Amino acid sequence: MLDYMIYILAFAVGSILGLLYSYKQHGEPFVAVPDFNMPMAVVAILGWCLAFCSGNVILTAIGILMGGFVMGERPGYGRKETAIGLIIAIALYLLMKWAV
Fold it and tell me: The pTM is what?
């Protein structure tokens, strides 16, 4: 039960940090950026892979914090990066489960 509380808290903190980072980076009221942000994609891939594949409470919480950081950015930012990170993490998880 405590594990889930840690995961929820990590996701909330990551979302808040992502929102603050996004507002600091982009001061405009709302501009949807069509570019693919490679550093955020790396953060999303690492975060979701840690969250799904680590098997450790601490590493899973760090992964959820990283995934929440990318998901928590302003509306219009981070959606492509999050989708790519989730797809790669789910594929890696399935490969690890089928390999055993």
Answer: 0.88
